[in-house]
Amino acid sequence: MATIIYDLECDFAHRFEGWFRSAEDFDSQHGRHLITCPQCGSSSVRKVPSRINIGSNDQSRSVADTPANGAVSAGKSNTVDVATAFVMAKQVIQALVAHSEDVGERFAEEARKIHYEEAPARAIRGQASPEECEELRDEGIDIVALPNLGPDSSSLN
């Protein structure tokens, strides 16, 4: 039997975990006000994103430490829920793929032509060997490696 663990928070910002047999079990208990905060007894609770730290091993920083404007200084961790991080990464990759020209195995050649203004400036994507990537970087050509999403980019889950 699987168990779902939700991070929960009451109206007084007390965070705690709730363990449920299913999402429907949570919904049923929540709807009947059976879930209460272990610190204050409030039955006004909601699900909140799980916390993960991105950017450093500093486990002492949390969402509460983040300034109201959301800015985080360089070198500090940024707390984001896992699901949001994956969705954001998928959306960025899909946007890059949708707004770039696939030049296939001619990537290194086309990147050079664009860099040296022998071809119109445009966003391109394609395949290049590790050696070709290193050569491009040595020439001062900025490139970014993207995961291969295959023919159907919706397969990235």
Describe this structure in words.
The chain has 157 residues and is α+β, with helices and mostly antiparallel strands. It contains four helices and seven strands, in the order ββαβββαβαβα. The strands form three sheets. A three-stranded antiparallel sheet has the order 2-1-3. The longest helix is centred in the middle third of the chain and has 17 residues. The two termini are 24 Å apart. 5% of the residues are buried. The C terminus is likely disordered.
Task: Note the main attributes of this structure.
rod-shaped; 4 helices; disordered C terminus; 19% strand; 3-stranded antiparallel β-sheet; two-stranded antiparallel sheet; alpha+beta; 157 residues
Based on DSSP secondary structure assignment, what is the total number of beta strands?
7
Contiguous helical run count:
4
- Evaluate the radius of gyration: 23 Å
Instruction: Tell me roughly what share of residues is in helical segments.
Output: 25-40%
As laid out across the biggest beta sheet, the strand order is 2-1-3
Q: What's the story with the biggest beta sheet?
A: 3 strands, antiparallel
Class by alpha and beta content: alpha+beta
Shape: rod-shaped
Low-confidence stretches: 58-77, 153-157
